[in-house]
Specification:
The complex is a heterotrimer of chains A (392), B (290) and C (237).
Chain A (H helix, E strand, L loop, with lengths): L1 H22 L20 E7 L6 H20 L8 E7 L4 H13 L5 E4 L3 H13 L4 E2 L16 E2 L5 H15 L4 E7 L2 H16 L3 E8 L7 H9 L4 E5 L2 H13 L5 E4 L7 H6 L7 E4 L8 H14 L6 H20 L4 H10 L3 E3 L2 E3 L12 E6 L2 E7 L2
Parallel strand pairs in A: 1-2, 1-3, 3-4, 4-5, 6-7, 6-8, 8-9, 9-10
Antiparallel strand pairs in A: 10-13, 11-12, 13-14
Helix pairs in contact in A: 2-11, 3-4, 5-6, 11-12
Chain B lengths: L1 H31 L6 H17 L4 H24 L7 H23 L14 E4 L2 E4 H23 L1 H11 L1 H6 L4 H27 L5 H16 L4 H21 L5 H15 L14
Helix pairs in contact in B: 1-5, 1-8, 1-9, 1-10, 2-3, 2-8, 2-9, 3-8, 5-6, 5-8, 9-10, 10-11
Chain C lengths: L1 E10 L2 E11 L4 E5 L6 H8 L7 E6 L2 E2 L8 H4 L1 E4 L11 H10 L7 H11 L1 H5 L10 H13 L5 E5 L7 H16 L3 E6 L2 H7 L2 E6 L2 E6 L4 H11 L6
Parallel strand pairs in C: 3-8, 3-9, 6-7, 7-8
Antiparallel strand pairs in C: 1-2, 1-4, 4-5, 9-10
Helix pairs in contact in C: 3-6
Classes of the chains: A alpha/beta (392), B mainly alpha (290), C alpha/beta (237).
Chain lengths: 392, 290, 237
Amino acid sequence: MKRFKKMIFMMVSLLSILTVLLAGCSAPKGASESDSKKDSSGPLKVGLVTQLSGGGALYGNLMKQGAQLAVDQINEKGGVDGRKLKLLAEDDQANPSESVKVTQRMVSDENIDAWIGTLKSSDTITDIGITAKKDIPSFVPVAVADNVTDSGLNNVYRNVAKNSMQITEMVNYILKKQPHKKMAIIAENTDYGRNIVKIFSEQFEKGGRKITNKELYNVGQKDFNNQLTKIKASKPDSVLIAGLVAEGALIAKQAKQLGINQQLYSFGGFMGKQPMELGGSAVNNLIHTDYFVPTAKDEKTQSFVNDFNEKYGQIPDSYYSAATYDAVYLYADAVKKAGTSDPEKVNKVLHELKNEHTVMGDITFDKNGQAATRVWISQIQDGKQVGIYHAE
Amino acid sequence: MTELIQIIVNGMANGALYALIALGLTLIYGVMNLSNFAQGEFAMIGAFGTYYFMQMHMNYLMAMILSLIVAGLIGFVIHILAFHPLRKSEPLNMMLSSLGVSVLLVNLSQYLFSPNPKVVSNSFSEDSIQAFGVFLSQQRILIVIVSLILCGFTYWLLERSKFGRSVRAASLDPDTATLYGIPTNRIAFITFVFGVALTGIAGGLTAPIYNVYPTMGISLTLKAFVVVVLGGMGNIPGAIMGGFIVGLIESFSAGYVSTAFQDVIVFSALFLVLIIKPEGILSKVQGEKV
Amino acid sequence: MLKINQVVSGYGDIKVLKGISLHVNEGEIVGILGANGVGKTTLLKTISNLIKTREGTITYLGQEIQNSSPHKLISMGIAHVPQGRHIFSKMSVIENLQISMDHANKKSNGKDRLSYVFDLFPRLKERLKQLGGTLSGGEQQMLAIARALVAGPKLILLDEPSMGLAPLVVQSMFETIQQIAKDGTTILLVEQNAVAALEIVQRLYVMDMGRTVYESQQITNQELDKIKEVYLGMSVS
């Protein structure tokens, strides 16, 4: 019996190790060759840290494509005051320790002039702690957790609306344009999901409407019948999915199969093509927030979409490329305006920007470096993303 | 009332799936004394197989049968490379080896198939059957039926056939089984391949409702271990019962306590069983199997 | 029938049998006596090939068997009743017997063997459906021997059949063993209970330190006392 218990104990420990191992199991890459020493006539080095292998590689590569497009365009026009831009993109495997390592190497060995990253808010926060020591202008085009721009750093710029902004936009949209009065929330059991539950419920109920359920699920879960059965029993008129598309698409499907045909709402996770691929007809009519709509009648957006399509042969369908593209331009323009790549002066210029027109919207960074870019309300209509609303 | 019935239906439907995966795991544990941490990866292989065979325009049934053969073949190779050489060493070594196999298979499939989820859709997967306000998708009905058939077949095979007698004898006492003419190494081989093929079918069955991606097996392994420990390691009826019990605990705790705590409650039940009756709830004869 | 010649075997680095030689003739009950840990059980396991023979040969009916697969021996007519009985505890009595019959020497008739066994051990017939683990110690030993017999063996290797049994049960067990030998099955008996064993064996070896240290061709009373005193450490009054 003792031996049996020992086996069980071993098994439980091994399972925990397994979970940790799988969180980041590929081997680190060797350091790229470094050409140290900053010099003011050589190229301006822009470091991009994002996931280029494994689970989120799809999104990391979209960021890289956007950045590369901007770099190429700027260099074609002669660079910035005669200096070319050089993009250094490195893989952080969406792993916190790897991300720190890559960023550290870029800062100390490569002497980057600007930093852009990453896919994950938690990795971003630790990385900008490193770039802050040398005041390197650092752009956060993708990660949206509120606390990225709460750290009071003077060198961090987020050119995408933060999470609480998209929640507020969604609540405002529903209160203004939709009749739904009783909403059920099914949320992933993470900071992201729990934050949405908290902020959304407060604002929604302040608007005089009701939340019927707050059901949680774990990331990686595949079966949501238990949550959905509970939701169905309280007869809401709409359901909000506070999670990402991998689980969200399954939730939409399983909801249909349980006979839940109410209007579905969600957030940025439902951007792009993936929801349709994973959810099929079950996600039809789902309404979600979006940061980028390729069909927007905006000159800047249209020229970006055309150039991107020309270079890569596809329409950029989500904000990853657009926001990273913008970040490169924001930096290049700031260097031009400052007349130098000296971090202190570039940071000053960036903080003084007023309504700078970019693909993502008009950018004014507040004292924490947060910009209020445009939040769209989009709807999936017959397999296509359609921007249906945005606040003026 | 409708909600209660729906909760029971949900629990049973998930339970059938858990039972099927746990069955393969417990069978392998019983005969080889191997806690196979790579069990869920064979569901992943079965699911990817089903996806790719359907991409070649095969129908769902055909694709599933072929992919269970693929899962079995891969299991055969893995048994030769990773487990057979360790059969005489400490069980811990085989357990570690299975952990390595799991990591290897997950990473290999991420490399080969990319980590993005793939969608399998067959003619049943979308629609539901409805009675008195209770819904169950046709795919889940299929899962329950196939799983019950396979559980029944495995039970019959073990309890009533000459082969099953040999398997049970080899699992109870390998040395004595050898003395009485049972080729225990061969039995271990066949059992492993059979056990992972069962799990491969489970993967093919779940593909249409859960999608297909490299890490899909990990949570299944975890669930199967909970079921197997609950039902008694190596205990076949225990695994089948345990599957349904875990499914029902989950659905009831989600329905009547909190969805945030459903896993907490399942694991609490597991710890309770480990403390009160560590040989498993269905075990009659006292004493350990090892 | 069985000839063991200079056999060396053991576990890992430890040699337990250090060049043992002995033989068993057809129809005999041969006893192997010796204290705990001298290698008696290892000897039987080596004959059955559960433990590899490192040096030397084991010849059975004129054929060297030290390299054959252990699961093939039962069909060649060698049945091993292991120490501690090792019946399949979670299987019924009849299943325990079926396992053996499944792999038996196919030539002999299964039904006859089954009824022969039930004649020897009527108690088993009453408990066919009972799980092996729920039988009493004596019944488990009966089952272990019955399981060997239903395979229709020519030679039975019996390892400590008296272990853990009450004296009365031991006595009837040994009578049965004698009966089995009379019915034509050769028996190699390993025993620590020398007194009981000496009653039925026709020839015996005494083992110590992985070798035979004494071999008796014919057991006289005088010889018996000497064996008891010198090799088995019993005081003879």
